[in-house]
Design brief:
Blueprint lengths: L2 H15 L5 H12 L6 H30 L4 H5 L8 H43 L2 H25 L8 H5 L1 H5 L2 H16 L2 H32 L2 H22 L13 H8 L2 H12 L6 H34 L3 H30 L3 H21 L3 H10 L6 H12 L5 H30 L7 H34 L1
Helix pairs in contact: 1-2, 3-5, 3-10, 3-11, 5-9, 5-13, 5-14, 5-19, 6-9, 6-11, 9-19, 10-15, 10-18, 13-19, 14-18, 14-19, 14-20, 15-17, 16-17, 16-18, 16-20
Amino acid sequence: MDSSESGLVECSAQVESNPSLNTTERNRLELERKYRWFILEPAILLLFYAWNVSSAVFTNQVVYQACTVTFGFNETLCAELGTENESAAAQELEKEVQPYTANVLMAKSLIESIIPALCSMFIGPWSDKYGRKPVLLSTFIGSFFTYSLVTTICFLSGRYQIDPWYYILAYIPAALSGGNCALITGVFCYITDVTSEQNRAVKMGVLEAAIFGGLLLGTLSSSYILRWTNATTVFGVAATGILVGILYIKLYIEESIRPHELMDSSTSRLREIFRFELVADLFHTCFKRRPNFDRVIIWLVIAALGASIFALEGTGTVYFLFLRERFGWTVKEFSFYDATAITLMIVGNLVGMYGIKKLLGVSESILAAIGFSCYAIENGIRAVAYEPWHLYLAIAISMMKGIAGPMGRAVISKTVPPNDIGKIFSLTTSIESLTPLLSAPVYTYVYRATLPWYPGAFNIISATVFFGCLCLMVLARLFEGMQQATTYTSIN
């Protein structure tokens, strides 16, 4: 009998034989039994599939419309941009169009950061009282409207001259619904609600594998759908995938906590979201004194997660442009590379979770430090890469990088009591969401400034940031050891 099966038997026995359990605990045990195999993984896989199936295609579409509409160049010449048959004239044109495209992508990144970061500060504390499911549904619905609008704009651009800046408007619905900030808060709060402490890290690892799986499927199918159809169809497929995710959450997922009994109407619950007392309570919870070194550990992990998102979001803003400029890659070549990277990350996750953690009993904080060290090594190799195989070497060496995020959150979930989880995760994701406000302009500026002589310079920034994250997690582990020593001393 494996650990999940033994946990299921234990869970069933507790629910059936212990009537003294409180309602919250009975609810958690029953949900843990129900979600033995899948919790939110199918819906999350579909959402990240939608994101990745359209990501590179979206960048290409912005480049093409900037070329034809903004700069007014010939459509035939613009169509060569980012293809295998790019002529010398198109390569020169690429250098002119790319900085403009980088500005559009930077604005998109800012839209996806500012509003969600503010929303998350209200949504997390609200979800502690009124439930996680409304948060999950609202983020999926917002993303569905965004991809539907992108599909519509792309369709109309084939018939009319539409400036690429209109795509920025399409991302407002997803931002207003909380975006990835509220999504991550809701997802990790939900998993914390329905899993026991001993199974939580594994479940968070499985969720991360579902994210990678969605990214992998999106990468593998993106270039083929684009080749067989067009960009409009790619965005339509993304919107359809999110719609299926909405139905999954609506029909299958149960609420994980008991809604607040004093506010039954949906109107009252909606008004409660905008109470500033919730934000005050959030900051009080995150900054209040805690036993031993809990507060220090929490903030070290939050700092590491926030800094890592700074590097990841900043890199994501310009990375495909870098590959196009440095190695002349097309969407097809990038898709194969991205698929390889994601596949290796899934393998790395399994090695980290079941090889290192299960067999060797390594702590979550050390696993997170290993993940951040892999990120640092990968970006260091990218910075000096001058052949495509160097990039493949980087992703092979750094295959365990994907464990950094879920293990960092697992550390937080074990350090704070359950009633504080929503508030802590809200502030964490808000900080993570705000980092692109700084990283997107910084990386865009660095890329544009170094484009003529060293387009890979931004990778040095990322490598340095991830090394800093590694140091923070090592410090967190040292404080955990001191925390245990203090606890043992007080018991004796």
